[in-house]
């Protein structure tokens, strides 16, 4: 993974991998030990550890040791920041689409009026 210093870039880089997204989806249901997080994947323990390190470095999860278990849980702050960034663009595109719909509806209305007037002739 590239060396990223911007926190938001780290989050998006971490989210780019489907394995990491699957781990986050599981953690959205509640905390889990590393062994449980690794179970659905056909990969080595070191590979899972690398994925967890990327998620932790991006601020998306927190890992803690509880007796002999390594427990992971979500840290919502980084996802909130990414959502806030995306929300700006979502609003922009929704506004543009709303204007497009209004334009098309107006054009259709104008066409209907013109057609009705043409039929009266």
**Average pLDDT across residues?**
87
Any idea what the CATH superfamily of the domain at 7-76 is called?
Answer: Winged helix-like DNA-binding domain superfamily/Winged helix DNA-binding domain
Report the span from N to C terminus. 70 Å
How large, in whole angstroms, is the Cα Rg?
24 Å
Shape: elongated
Q: What share of residues is helical? A: 55-70%
Helix and strand run: HHEHHEEH
Instruction: Provide the CATH topology of the domain at 7-76.
Output: Arc Repressor Mutant, subunit A
- Tell how many strands the DSSP assignment holds: 3
**CATH architect. name of the domain at 7-76:** Orthogonal Bundle
Task: Detail the poorly predicted runs.
Answer: none
Secondary structure category: mainly alpha
Please report which band the strand proportion falls in: under 5%, 5-15%, 15-25%, 25-35%, 35-45% or over 45%.
5-15%
Number of helical stretches of at least 4 residues: 5
